[in-house]
Amino acid sequence: MAGTAELIIEGKSYQYPTIEGSEGEKAIDIAKLRDETGYITIDSGYKNTGATKSGITFLDGEEGILRYRGYSIEDLADKASFLEVAYLLIYGELPTTEQYAKFENDIRRHTIVNEDMRRIFNGFPVNSHPMGVMSSLISAMSGFYPDSYDDKAPDRTELHIIRLLAKFPTLATWCYKKSNGHPINYPKNSLDYCSNFLHMMFSLPVENYEVNPVISKALNKLLILHADHEQNCSTSTVRLVGSSKANLYSSISAGISALWGPLHGGANQEVIEMLDEIVADGGDVEKYVLKAKDKSSGFRLFGFGHRVYKNFDPRARIIKKAADDILETLGINDPTLEVAKKLEEVALTDEYFIARKLYPNVDFYSGIIYRALGIPTNMFTVMFALGRLPGWIAQWKEMRAAKEPIGRPRQIYTGATLREFVPIEKR
Ligand code: ACO
User: Fold this and answer.
1) Whose Cα sits closest to atom 30 in ligand 1?
2) Ligand 1 pocket: which residues have CB below 6 Å?
3) What is the mean pLDDT of the segment spanning 157-161?
4) Angle formed by the axes of helices 363-372 and 335-348, to 10°?
5) Ligand 1 pocket mutation, candidates 59, 356, 384, 392, criterion most atoms within 8 A of CB
6) Dihedral sign from CA coordinates of 83, 86, 90, 92
């Protein structure tokens, strides 16, 4: 229900409208604040700032709830295919059989990448991080589809969406193949989305490769769990870049760069490296919990803590169970899973973590599954990006459809006041 908030500044009263979302979240609309009072609001890290109204993803950090377009993450991860979820996020409803067949078929028909992209790709050193390569390649795609940034060209957004969903897995597997010195694979369009990705990753021209359905199912689940997460750092980046009317490829490329950071998606790589280090160091988890509590160490428990979840991360719960199931089904004994569980147990009973409401996040167990699926550590964040792609696209599309104004935060200036220029010989 819309209401009014009263603000008293310097003894004078101002009224601002309040807004309520469909799940009861409340906000004060301060758009006119500066015009009327001369004040802005300041909120470093946007801890308390709503950047938009969105109908895509709902999350309640206190209750540990996550829903895409009203459907619970638990239901979707259990019952849907990743492309169904992608369709749901981008177009607002679960697809009918016909809509799904068309969507899947459209994606299949665009899996091949322009051969000239290979020349760009070949220029990267063999040890380049795949996230940097992916960000560059996705940005380079705009050069192959100039209608994506030509305002006078017919609107081909729908085609660019299909191209991105179709070509991203192909490009991602190039990175892996190059790092191994293996020939890259062309897509096999008879396969479903996840199986095709696994085929491009792992098949070699010298032997037959059969996609293991257990692995394909696990990948499907992981991608769904990562598919959207409302206004996180990378998604906000995509929306902000897109708000300047930058094209979809450049906006997604910026999102990939934002996701790469170790405080965001890059944490999944950091987690597995940390768990490996603990295992190599004899598995003494208490020692690492102590180190994480010691601010002077500069060490954080990667995969712990979340800006919004202050109770539990529902994705982490699903992933923890999936990690157990998958390792058991594949007959893998990974000591990092035991260390991760021990670390979680110790941290969750420790006063420091309880007081700060720090719980395992989506990245804590995902790396253990990726590794069980045969995916190397430096590709973990690319897997996150592959999953997040439909969310970024949906958020970009929503922002454009709403004709949101260009994003342009303000600041409080704290630098030098007016000074007279001093010629160089007199400084
Ligand atoms: N280990 C140890 N202490 C932590 C951790 C951690 N993982 N996370 C937060 N804290 C502490 C902070 O030092 C701070 O303590 P203080 O109040 O005594 O100063 C307090 O908890 C609050 O932390 P902030 O950094 O202020 O919380 P914020 O909401 O800004 O950060 C973040 C959230 C970035 C996720 C943080 O918890 C973190 O760095 N976690 C590790 C990296 C990680 O796993 N990132 C993935 C997040 S999920 C995702 O992006 C997909």
Assistant:
1) 307
2) 45, 263-265, 267, 292, 300-307, 356, 358, 361-363
3) 97
4) 170
5) 356
6) positive
Examine the pLDDT at 182 and tell me if it is beyond 80. Answer: yes
Nearest CA to ligand 1 atom 35: 306
What is the number of the ligand 1 atom nearest to the C-alpha of 300?
1
Nearest Cα residue to 412 out of 38, 52, 5: 38
Nearest CA-CA partner of 363 in 397, 389, 387, 399: 387
Cα 336 to middle of ligand 1, angstroms: 22
CA-based nearest residue to 388, from 171, 238, 177, 244: 238
- In the predicted structure, residue 2 carries a pLDDT above the cut 80: no
Whether pTM > 0.90 for this model: the answer is yes
- Taking alpha carbons only, the member of 318, 381, 400, 367 closest to residue 134 is 381
- Using 50, 70 and 90 to split pLDDT, how confident is the model at 153? confident
Q: Which regions of 36-76 does DSSP assign to beta strands (E)?
A: 57-60, 65-68, 71-72
Q: What is the pLDDT of residue 1?
A: 53
The residue whose two tokens read 């390792």 is 327
Beta-strand (E) ranges in 61-153?
Answer: 65-68, 71-72
Ligand 1 centroid vs 240 CA: distance in angstroms?
A: 24
Share of the chain above pLDDT 90, in %: 93
pLDDT digit string, tens, across residues 367-389:
999 999 999 999 999 999 999 99
| pLDDT for res 150 | 87
Contact 293, 354 (CB under 8 A): no
Q: Whose CA is nearest to atom 44 of ligand 1?
A: 303
Q: How far is the CA of 31 from the centre of ligand 1 (A)?
A: 30
Mean pLDDT computed over every residue of the chain: 95
User: What Å distances lie between residue 74 and 70, 225, 366, CA to CA?
Assistant: 12, 9, 16
Reply yes or no on whether the pLDDT at 413 is more than 80.
yes
Q: How far is the CA of 237 from the centre of ligand 1 (A)?
A: 20
- Distance set, CA 161 to CA 5, 57, 96, 273 (Å): 41, 19, 19, 34
Span 62-100, pLDDT tens digits: 999 999 999 999 999 999 999 999 999 999 999 999 999
